[in-house]
Amino acid sequence: MTAHQTDHAVMEDSLVTLGDRYDGMAAELFDRIIADHPQYAPVFLNPEAARERMTRETLEAMLGLAAGEYWVDHAVTNFIDLHHNYADFTPHDYAAWFALVIGTMASRAGADWPAGASAAWQRQADVLVAKVATVARNNEVPVRS
Q1: Could you tell me which of 20, 83, 23 has the C-alpha nearest to residue 54?
Q2: Rounded distance, CA 81 to CA 140, Å?
């Protein structure tokens, strides 16, 4: 089994372990990221719509990356272009979001969180942050001021 396959398996197991403890996590994550980065609060015109989608797409991208899915690079480009409509988010902002997602899942799962799960998620997050750093921003879409 390759490292990616191992990461993917433990990541899937961790989501199963998280189970119903996922309920309300997207709202918690969004509230926490805005509390840590209040400058971004005004750019999300409809946070209720954004928070669940942001959380779900983050988890899907990390799982897809671990599974070697072809679409992940396109998803990262879409993340950049979409978020560029709102503000000039940096790779550091993405890294902070990914770390918050991983830490919150682990915290919600508590002692049930599988060994190695946080490290597996973080490896995928690190690769996604590196991908974010290499995407050329769509200059046709101005940053909202």
Answers
A1: 83
A2: 10
